[in-house]
Amino acid sequence: MTPHNRASKADIAPVVLAPGDPLRAKLVAEHFLEDARLVTDVRNILGYTGVYKNMPVSVLSTGMGGPSVGIYSYELFTDYGVNAIIRIGTCGGLQPSIEVGDLVAAMTASTDSNWAHQYNLKGSYSPVCDANLLLRAMAIAKKLEIPMHAGMVFSSDLFSSYNALGEDSWQAWARMGALAQDMETYALYSTAAWTKKHALSLLTMTDSCVTGQGFGDEMRTVGLYPMIEVALQVASEVR
């Protein structure tokens, strides 16, 4: 156990789905996994382990923001021997070609955070996803006819809607090709690289910074189901 996770090492599967929202972890456990059981609830950060297509899969909330996902992913990789983490999150769309409800697979992440200063690198660091996880996710999404875009995301310490600079906070990143904005991918990918493990960030575009369109209240749960299905199928194929 760690200060943030009361599960035993045997309670956690080799592949973990990682939503930010604890209630999304509960949703995955109750609606998608067989024989799911609660394995940790420290600070109301819920974690479950169950079975999907005869394979053990865990789902653990990571909270909001880079520092939070950094804590939980680091402990999963180092203390629990987890091999791969698949983030299942939401994002704001930065490109007009991305429709509300589309999936974004983060090939790499840029950031306004100083997260990478801890590695004492003599330059700017651009972390990337695990290529095998990405290719599997893209193939599964294509088979299921789920729209998916792959490219760079912008992981910000600032929630775009609350940024004092407004549009100026994301337009420059969109100009440089960022598909979407979230808060966690950069820290997750950096932690996976440091621990020599594997990670993929799958995001559902719930609100477009470009068009102002977004999910209604009723879609903020069921609208995430396609992303969850893709992530679970990927998890069932890798160990």
TrEMBL record:
CDD domains, per database record: PNP_EcPNPI-like (cd09006)
The name this protein goes by in its record: Uridine phosphorylase
NCBIfam families reported for this sequence: PRK05819.1 (NF004489)
Top-level taxonomic group: Bacteria
Record's catalysed reaction(s): uridine + phosphate = alpha-D-ribose 1-phosphate + uracil
SUPFAM superfamilies documented for this protein: Purine and uridine phosphorylases (SSF53167)
Keywords: Glycosyltransferase, Transferase
GO molecular function, one term: uridine phosphorylase activity
Entry GO terms, CC: cytosol
One biological process term in Gene Ontology: purine nucleoside catabolic process
Species this chain originates from: Sphaerochaeta halotolerans
Record-stated family: Belongs to the PNP/UDP phosphorylase family.
One of the Pfam families matching this protein, by short name: PNP_UDP_1
InterPro entries documented for this protein: DeoD-type (IPR004402), Nucleoside_phosphorylase_CS (IPR018016), Nucleoside_phosphorylase_d (IPR000845), Nucleoside_phosphorylase_sf (IPR035994)
Residue ranges annotated for the Nucleoside phosphorylase domain, each copy included: 15-211
Record keyword Glycosyltransferase present: yes
UniProt-listed Enzyme Commission number(s): 2.4.2.3
Residue ranges the record marks as coiled coil: none
Gene3D superfamilies named among the record's database cross-references: Nucleoside phosphorylase domain (3.40.50.1580)
Keyword Transferase tagged: yes
